[in-house]
Amino acid sequence: MRVPLSWLREYVDVAADAAPEEVLAALVSVGFEEEDIHRFEISGPIVVGEVLSFEEEPQKNGKTIRWCQVDVGPSNGGVRGIVCGASNFAVGDRIVATLPGSVLPGPFPIAARKTYGHVSDGMIASARELGLGDEHNGILVLSELGIDAEVGTDAIALLHLNDVAVEINVTPDRGYAFSLRGVAREYSHATGAAFRDPAERDFAELQPGSGFAISVDDRNPIRGNAGAREFVARVVRDVDPSRPTPPWMIARLSLAGMRSLGVLIDITNYVMLELGNPIHGYDLDKLQGGIVVRRAHEGERLTTLDGQQRTLHVEDLLITDGSGPIGLAGVMGGGTTEMSDDTRNVLIEAAVFDSVTIARTARRHKLPSEASKRFERGVDPLIPFVAARRVADLMVELAGGTLTDEGGALYAEVEIPGIDLPRGFTQGVVGVDYSDDEITGALQTIGAEITPSADSGAEQGDGWFVIPPSWRPDLTDKWTLVEEVARIHGLDRIPSELPTPPSGRGYTALQQGRRRVADALAAAGFVETPAFPFTTEEQNDLHGSATGERLPSIRLANPLDGQAPYLRRSLLPGLLQTAHRNISRGLVDLAIFESGSVFTPEQGVVYGTDFIPPLGRRPDDETLAALNASIPPQPRHVAVLLTGSMTPRQPGRPAQPASLGDALDAVRVIGVAAGVEIDVAQTSRAALHPGRAGVLSVRGEEVGYVGELHPQVSADADLPGRAVVLELDLDRVLTLAGDRVVAASLSTFPAATQDVSLVVGVEVPASEVRAALVEGAGDLLEAARLVDDYRGEGLGEGQKSLSFALRFRAPDRTLTAAEATEAKLAGVAVATERFAATIRD
C-alpha cells in the first residue's frame, strides 16, 4: 500500500517536517513491513509561463513547429524563446515551462539547445512529461485544469509534484490497511497523534433514496451465506466527463500507483484508496432495468473492462441487469455499461461481497484487481453508505453533476461476535505484566467495545467481553486480542529470553541416527542432494520394487508437474535426475546421496480423508489415530549414486572409476554410523545389472540393495558409462540397531591373527559363511573379514574358495596360538555343518 503523506495528513496529525523514514518507522512499530519511498522524479526550475506569441514554421520533414516567446517571470529571466512541437495552445495561455537545469522523470535533464534553427531556452511540458499521466495530447494548459496562477509561480508545488509516498507491506489478515483511513488510524496508534475518521458522517445524509430496483438472488451461496450482504446504489446526473481531474488528485493517485483515467474513474479509485471500499460506476443510460446480484449460469459469457471475453463458472458472483451479466462482482466490471466520454448519468455502486467468493473468482479467471484484493481480505460492512455518498459528492464537485434522490440499498444487520478475554490471560501469553488499564486501553484504541465479563460475580469481573470493530474481521478469538495488546504497547516490551529446555529432551534416537548417517556420508566425500519427492508411475515400478511389478503409488490431486504426479517409492529417480543435470553441465564425476521419505501405500488401502479437525485445540488420540491412518507409510530411506571417477587421473596414476566396491564401502560407512553390521548377498533386481546386484540385510532381515545400474536404465537416464547405486530403509536399520553403545572398553592385550580358506559351492553367499565362522568362534573372535574369492584351477566344478582374515583377542590375557586355532576350528565346524565347507589345502 502506497500512502501519499499529504493525503495522510488529512486524517491524522503528521508533523509538517516529518521525514518519510520517520513515518515508515512509526508504521513498522505497529507491525507493518517497510517497502519503499516514492517521489516524483522531478526538480526545478519549473514555473508557470505565459505564451506571449508564437510563429508556426513548417519543416522539411513535414512537421510544423512553433517558435514561442514565453514569459516566465522577472526572477526567471523574463521572456524566453522556446521551440514547441504541440499546437493545442493559444497566445495568452498559461503553461508549465521547464527551464534549463531542471530534470523531468526519466531522468530527462533540460538544457538550452539549438534545434530547428533556434536556441530553445527550455521546454513547454505535457502532463506525461511531468509524470502526471500516460496521455500525451499536447502540452499542459493550466486553464484547462481550472488553475489560475501568476507567471513565475513554482509549478512543482502548484501541481503537487513535491508530494512523497511511503509504501508498506500489508499482510493478508489486515485488509483494513489497504486504505488511507486504515493507515491513518494505525499511525495514530503508533504516535498518539489525533485521528480524524473520514467515515464519520451524519447517517441521515447517507441514505441513497429509492426508485432503483436492486435484488440478490444467490441460488448457490458459498459458505452458507449470500454472496452480497450489502449493496448501495446512488445516482448522479448531468456529469461532464470531459472535465479535468484536479492536479492534486492526479498526483495522489500517481503516488499510490494508479494512472489517471478520466475524472469519473479517478473519483471511484480515489475513494477506494481513501476508505478501502471498492466502488464501481455504471453509465446509467446503458443499464437495462434494475440490478440483480446472482451466480452465473452454465455457459454464460462476459466481456470485462480489459476487453477479454470470459466463460463464467457457476460459482462466479455476477452483477446483472435485464441484458444479462454486466460485471464480475468485486473483481471487474463489464464493457457494456462502463463509463466513457459520452456518459452523462452515473449509477454508483458500493457493496460488500463474500470474501471467499471474490478470491475464488479472481484466481479462477487469473484476474487480480485492486477491488478483489480488498474484498477477499474483508471490507468494513459499515462503510458502503459512506463510500457511495463520498463518490457522489466528488462527482458533483469535480464533474459538475447533480445528486438525485434516486437509488436503492440492500443491507443486513451487522452482528459481530463478542470475545471473552479472561483477566491474566494476556500476561500469561505475552510474558509482560500489563495492567488492566493497559489492556483495556489498547483494545479501546483499536476501536473495540469492552464491558466486564457477564459471568463474573466480582465487582470488576474476572475478565472482559470484547466486541471488535467492524473493520477488523481478523479479530476472532482471545489470542488475536492479545496480539493487539502487544502490538499497541510495543513488541519491544516483550522480553527476549530463551526458555530453559527441560532435561531429557532433544533429538529422538531415530533423529540422532539419521544425522549420524548423513554426517558420516558427507565426511566420506559424498555430497547430499535433496530432490523433489515427485516422479512417474513407471519410475516407481522400476525402482520401487525388486521385480519391476506394478505396485500402488500415491497420485497427487494437484501436482506441481503434470508429468510427475506421483509420490516416490524410491529415492533413486531423484538421484538420477540430479546426476543427469550435473553431467549435462560438465560435472561427470559424482558421488551423491539423499536421505528422505518415500511413500509406500499398501495394496487395497484407500488413503485420504475429508475430515479436518477444528483449529485451536489439540485433537484427541482417536482423531490423531484416524488422521495417521489416512496417510500412507512414509519410511525414511538413504540412497547413494556413484558415476564417473572416484579419484581423478594424476601424474603416474590413472583415474579410478567408480565401482561396486565403492558402493560397498558406502554401505560400511552407513553401517558404522548406524551401529549395525550390514551383510551383503547376491540377488537380482529389475533396475540393476544381472549378476552385479546385492541384497543388504541386518540380522537376517532385508533392509535394502546395492548394485550396478542396468545399462538400459543408465542409458534412459542419459548417464554415460557405469553407475552404481545403493538404497537402504534407514529407519528400519536404526530400529534394528537398537540402543547404540557409545563407547566400549579396549583390551590392552595383543591380538592373535589367523587366516582360513573354505571351499563351498558357488551358490553359497560369502556373508552367510562369515556369519557361521563368527557364530562358531565365539567371543574370542574380534573381527572376520573376507579377503579373497577364488574360482578356478584346483577347485572342482561349481566350487569357490573364500579366504577370511580372522583376528582373536581376549580381554584378560594374551591368547596362545592353540587357543586361537581352537576358536577358528570351532567356526569352521559350524560352516561345515551348514554348507559342507572344507578347509582348502
Please tell me how large the radius of gyration is: 40 Å
What is the general shape?
Answer: elongated
Instruction: Say how many strands there are.
Output: 42
Could you say how many structural domains there are in total? 6
Q: What's the overall average pLDDT, rounded?
A: 89
CATH architecture of the largest domain: 3-Layer(bba) Sandwich
Q: What portion of residues is helical?
A: 25-40%
CATH topology of the largest domain: Phenylalanyl-tRNA Synthetase, Chain B, domain 3
In short:
This protein has 841 residues and is of the alpha+beta class.
Would you give an account of this structure?
- The chain has 841 residues and is of the alpha+beta class.
- It folds into 6 domains: 67 residues, Phenylalanyl-tRNA Synthetase, Chain B, domain 1 (2-Layer Sandwich); 113 residues, Beta Barrel (OB fold (Dihydrolipoamide Acetyltransferase, E2P)), CATH 2.40.50; 209 residues, Phenylalanyl-tRNA Synthetase, Chain B, domain 3 (3-Layer(bba) Sandwich), CATH 3.50.40; 75 residues, Phenylalanyl-tRNA Synthetase, Chain B, domain 1; 195 residues, Bira Bifunctional Protein, Domain 2 (BirA Bifunctional Protein, domain 2), CATH 3.30.930; 88 residues, Ferrodoxin-fold anticodon-binding domain (Alpha-Beta Plaits).
- 25% of the residues lie in helices and 27% in strands.
- The chain contains 21 helices and 42 strands.
- The strands form 12 sheets. Strands 28-31-32-38-37-36-35 form a 7-stranded mixed β-sheet, with helices on both faces. A 5-stranded antiparallel β-sheet has the order 5-4-3-6-11, with no helix packed on it. It has a 5-stranded mixed β-sheet with strand order 13-24-15-23-16.
- Helix 2 crosses helix 4 and helix 6 runs antiparallel to helix 9.
- About 1% of the residues have low confidence.
